[in-house]
Known about the structure:
The structure holds 2 protein chains of 2 kinds. Chain A is 81% helix and 0% strand. Chain A is an all-alpha fold. Chain A starts with a helix and ends with a helix. Chain B is mostly helical. Chain B has helices spanning 5-8, 18-44, 55-68, 75-102, 104-119, 126-133, 137-161, 165-173, 178-214, 221-230, 234-262, 264-275. In chain B, helix 4 packs parallel to helix 7 (137-161). The two termini of chain B are 21 Å apart. At the A-B interface, helix 1, helix 4, helix 5, helix 6 and helix 8 of A face helix 2, helix 5, helix 6, helix 9 and helix 10 of B.
Amino acid sequence: MSAFTAAARRALPSVVAIVALLAAWQVATASGYLSSAQFPTMTSTVSALAQELATPDLWGAVGMTLSGWAAGLLIGSVLAIVVGTVLGLNVTAFRAVSPVIEAFKAIPAVAILPLVILILGSTLPMKIFLVSFSVFWPMVVQVVYGVRSIDPVANDTARALGVGGIRKFFVVTIPSASPYIATGLRVGSATALILAVVAELVGGAGGIGRVILLGQNAGSVFYPTMYAYIILSGLLGMVLTGAFILAERRIMHWHESQRGNV
Amino acid sequence: MTADSTLATRPESGGTGRDSVRIIRIFLPILVPAVLIAAWWFSTVNSTSPYFPPLATILDRFLELWVVGDAKEELVPSLRNLGAGFLIGSVAGVALGMLMWRITIVRQAVSPIVYFLYVLPAPALLPAMIAIFGIGDMRQVALIAFGSIWPALFNTLDGMRGVDSVKHDAAAAMGVGRNRTTLSVDLPGASPQIAAGLRASLQVSLILMVISEMVAATHGIGFFILYSQTTFAIVNMWTGIMMLAIVGVVLNFAFIGIERRILQWHYRSRRIGGEA
């Protein structure tokens, strides 16, 4: 009981802040201070969200956004883990290609969006390509640093035990580099969601982003729905990031970075 | 960032062939980009594909449009919006981060809201920004500013959390007030992480700059690229992509240069600390 009240007391300021924000939104829009042509009322947005949550359209849009996010993140990071491991084990190779990686990391992935639309059209593969392209470059660097951080003792032990090749990759390299990979995946997940929305908003692929743009084009009657979908995209971001943080804690509980100060 | 130092500590292989090793080492970073550009050049030299015109054609057009011609004027509104948005967003982010660090009740109260806005994919807000600000430069600046607040804010908060508490005790023992401690102990202590946050903010800003120019816009480099694509002026589109790539790389390296300069004291003190 006391644990419960303590948690409630800790949550109190944020609950008050959220309620105050929603109330301020309602007052500002209902009083006409913010015109309804710009901003719908809080109640109409929340009811639009509740209404949409009951429709298959919303879940279809979420599914399309998530499939682009998941496939792009998977392809981009698997390629990055393979390439990053090779570069992490070979200093000369990394020195040779690092200017290319740094340059591609600095180029905004949206630059190639019109080219990708041209070749692949407003399709799911277009979205997946854009997402994996943007996930790949920062992830490679992360994996290289992770592979370099391997304890030399672990390396020598593996060699002494005759563990090599693919087996060493899974038993020594990946676990040692895993904190770096986990961070890379968490950051990559956020990037992937941004690029998935961009592919829908600008590239016209199906998903949350396109519904938001169509809502804006349809005029102010549809603004409550548009804002409902914007809020939905934020909720999606929260769920995905939360899931990654939880998974990181769960899977990496053995690693010293997660153990805390013993 | 920490792994950088391992690069330099490789022992030199002495004796014969040392000069050739050194020469290879100097040319190595140029070699791969040169090979890639050559590969691009030769693979497209006789290209008839409408999507992949010969590199020579693209470079000629690039010179014609962006160096000699007027296309470079597209860069002016783009960079102006980027600069204004990034500046407003990052100052607001660092200030809000400091406020949240300094006043516990503020941190507890706004954390969930701030976190929500941080994970919300900022491009989703573009249609809302159009609804609120219309289709001028204002909504672009607003969107860029909005997107660049959060990485700056969270890294400020994280960096300040990581400042050694011994420094706080020392400041308290010297009779330094809490506000001044935040400014003269926490802020410098957190600055490497704040710099990392600002770099992330800059990357987000650049993405938001481009996409805000791709939806309901009439100028800017993003508009140029998308307009060229829709009018099937593929070579022009390639020159725009090239220009945007150059902008991205130049901004990134300019940022790193400025960061190294400003944080010189930090790297120096860490080096001394490491030797002691």
